[in-house]
Design a protein that fits this description.
4 helices, 12 strands, elongated
């Protein structure tokens, strides 16, 4: 008890500076737990921290990296997936021509599921449009060529003839007012599209028209008439059939004559 008293007296005799220094030393040795215990005032804490930083040592060098740890245990196996449903087999059966019950008596095949009673007919030469006629605003093209001579150029029976065919029939035949020949002046608007004029290499026709383009002929040979197939010369009226037309050419003399070209026809 006397020793403790003498120690306090000595601390008191040397003033508060020594007291703070001693406390700082204790703080440096004991760490922040002492300051946190509540025995110091706020001012004393700041003094202690300042002195502690002064006497604190510098951080040591970073230690070497540790060795890699051992491989962990293998995880549990996942649950198996769900198997999908079994596929369906498809059967293909040949259809021969002449069968009135399938493919309109044309060749083809019947595709159906193995257990099904009905299937889909895939027929040879099936029309690509309902009714088997050219759809509205659809265009088909073709070419023509003719050569020969005429004993009497003025006799229509002795002119030159050729035909043009429409692979897909038109919904209706065309009359003379819907047939245009090129070249002609002025250029027919019915034989151009978006400002592009048709020609023998690129035949064009507006809906409801047939445009016939000359690709080459000898002088004086030209299309005199466009007639339906099978027309009789005496009463032939200009126009087409639904499947094509006959072209009648005027020739200049008894000399050899020729003409060729192309056509475009568009359904209305």
């Amino acid at each position: 008890m006397q020793r403790s008293k003498r120690f306090r007296d000595r601390l008191g005799a040397n003033g508060p500076g020594l007291t703070v220094a001693v406390i700082a030393l204790i703080f440096a040795l004991a760490g922040g737990a002492f300051a946190a215990s509540g025995v110091l005032t706020g001012k004393q804490k700041k003094e202690v921290e300042k002195i502690a930083k002064k006497f604190a040592g510098t951080p040591g060098a970073t230690g070497p990296a540790g060795s890699q740890g051992s491989t962990g245990a293998k995880g549990d196996k996942g649950d198996p997936g769900i198997q999908g449903p079994a596929g369906k087999s498809v059967k293909v059966t040949k259809i021969t021509s002449g069968n009135p019950a399938a493919c309109e008596e044309r060749n083809g095949v019947l595709v159906k599921e193995e257990s099904a009673s009905t299937g889909i007919e895939v027929c040879e030469g099936s029309p690509w449009t309902a009714g088997g006629t050219l759809p509205p605003e659809a265009t088909e093209t073709g070419t023509f060529s003719v050569q020969g001579s005429s004993k009497d150029p003025g006799d229509t029976a002795n002119g030159l003839f050729t035909t043009i065919s429409f692979p897909i029939p038109l919904p209706a035949a065309l009359d003379a007012g819907h047939i245009k020949t090129v070249p002609t002046f002025p250029f027919p608007a019915e034989c151009e599209s978006a400002g592009v004029k048709g020609n023998a290499e690129n035949p064009i026709a507006q809906p409801g028209y047939l445009c016939i383009y000359s690709g080459g002929e000898n002088a004086g040979t030209f299309i005199e008439a466009v007639e339906p197939p099978g027309s009789i010369f005496a009463d032939a009226a200009s126009g087409t059939g639904t499947s094509g037309a006959r072209l009648r050419f005027e020739v200049p003399s008894e000399e050899f004559a020729f003409a060729n070209g192309s056509f475009a026809v568009t359904a209305e």
